[in-house]
TrEMBL record:
Organism: Kitasatospora sp. CMC57
GO function term, MF aspect, one: nucleic acid binding
An example Gene Ontology biological process: DNA integration
Keyword Chaperone attributed: no
Protein name according to UniProt: DDE-type integrase/transposase/recombinase
Amino acid sequence: MSRAPRIRASQPPGTGPGLSLGDTVRFGGHTYTVSVLQGHRVSMEPREEGVDAVTCLLATVVAAGDFAVLDRLDHPQELHQLPYRKGEFEALPAHVRSQALEWEHHVKQVLHRQSPNVPATTAPWPEYDPALHTLQERYEAKARQLRALGRDVSAATVERRCRAWRAQGVMGLVDGRRTRGASPYGRTDPRVVALLWDVLDAEAKSGESAGTAQRLWERLEGAVDERYRRELDDPLERARLRVPRSTFYKLLQRLGISVDDVAGPTARRVAGHNRPAPPYTPTVARVPGELVQIDTTGLDILAIGDDGRPTPVEATIAIDIATRSIIGEMIVPRQTGDGPRGARLGGRATRALDAVFTIAQALAPVPGRPGWSPLTLMDGSDLPYEELLATDPRMEGAAARPVIRPQTVVIDHGRVYTGSVFSSACAELGIEVRHARTRTPTDKAVVERAMRTIKTKFSQHVAGHTARKLELRGKGVDKQPLWTVNQLQEMFSEWVTLQWQQTPQGGLRSPYTPGLILAPNQMYAAAVSLAGYRALPQTPGDNRKLLPAQWVTVTRKGFQINNRTYSLGDALIPFRRPSGITGRRGKWEARYNPYEPDVAWLYNHRAEEGQDPWVEVPFVFRRLIDDPWTERVWEQATAAHVAAGGSIRDERAIARAVNELRERARRGHAPARTVVPASFQGRKLETAAPRREPLGDLPAINPATITPYRSLDGPAADLFVDPHPPKKAAHPPDDVLAALDWDISGLDGFPPYGPEDLGPDEGRAEQ
């Protein structure tokens, strides 16, 4: 005969086994009867002679090695701890609780041999005595008793109730219809709800114009016809999958989708459908760099673009979760190009390389800028400057921003981050890339909230603020004086250093004094003392690996990247043979910076140990362009040249067009203007090898060892007498050019051209 396990339904989880008055327990080698329970104390009377009564803590009793609750035959009982659902039970209606408690009375009588609150020493009823009847016989006895009271109950029902009580306690005796939660979308089939979300996502991605809820319902019906064509042949399935129009509007309301939002902005016509349910779980990181979130969004600011016209800008920031420090930021213009979709020229927005530059900023200190406030320098900030400087000499003269190397970066599903450029750069740096889940804003909640703070604390105080909605925008914003993109970038970098990094934030608490609210720099100072800091500077070769890669074939004329020829004469002879990389059909790896495309770097995979594998190769016509330029300027000049009837292969003419664009930027509307407005060139990435100082190895000069030169014997005027006075007529330019030695194939950036290859305006010194 099996013994029923002993169960304490009223015991909260985590408190250990429970006791009741009248229980027989074994403790300290003796048996006792529980006589008093008062809070955490228990009093027990001995059942043996010569043993004293015991009063002690309940935790002491149940923690004893020989502790056990004994049954009537002095056998240890198995203890089951049930989930504590008292609050949920008391939230039910009174009549439901009364019915459940009544059933608990009967269940305990069957399983415990006694009704509740009856001392264990009382003899059980004969029909429920385990010494006389099996558990199944007790089930049948209870069923007969209840049927005698006029209730239609079988032995199987009693058994089912007892099992439910064992598993869930008193909540297992409650009618399941009373505890079943309501569906968030009513009685609508979940397959229809999933299709509705798919239709909404498709509309958002397509970028089409807004429509009405009627159109959304019609598209949902079409999606059901396409997805469940076979199921619709069944009348029952058709009734589940077909949603009447009136039910459809109720479904939208249940999902938090309003009709106004369906006909509203195209980007997202859903009102808070992806808002997580409270309580919210914060994103936690314990050491700097453990988790970094990166995102791109518009700044609600107009700036002056490279073409001199107002253009909106967008910002990309990377924020460290542990310290809330902005470890990288970049502002770029956002312009729509001309031409059909997929073949537009002149457009500009954040690219994958901009995101790479944002991450690369985190690997090196940000240098202090001339004109910045003295409070932006690290040596006077909350950062441990002396300790960091002793470890990393690059900290000298740096701004008050920490150097944090990311370990994991959380990104969204935008093209900027999902491409191979960003992922390969992170793999090169040893950074793990983690994708945020769709429709889950909590995965990137910190950077999203940081962007909102930037708009309220920075953007609205800058000239050219456009507000977040068109109806809130002031009149004539594009007519007022605006900042250039480069100036805006400098202002934003200073604001991050001076305001963001030094302002206390409620989410940052001191690990030593949790009640103390810290600023990001203070939090980093506290965290770096625990996690430590190690300088890992990037070499120019390491930075070149972060640039976009092009696989090129090197010929006698060099190689081409985006309609530009790069050549270095005989220095490229080793690259004219196949590289041996079969996956790239023998081509060579080349890297270039789109913001400084005047040079490219070839990578020699066959370089010997100790030999620099990188070869810097200049653009052959770079000396025709006087001012700094970017690949975007090259694309604009190419488009203008082709539109005028020129050939796209005429690199020399395109280079002159680039120089003319930069000259036009110099002149502007004022003829006397001499300063060239700098074009947008992104963030600086050190890719050029450091140049060696020719006199750097000379010892320091001791003035005491210098011998003075003797005094002049003659008048000083005789020293400047020209023995060859100028002639009346200068040499013709053609004679001068003919007399020059044109063997300049070895010079940096010049192909082996002669004077006959130059145009009428080339080869002459600028007047």
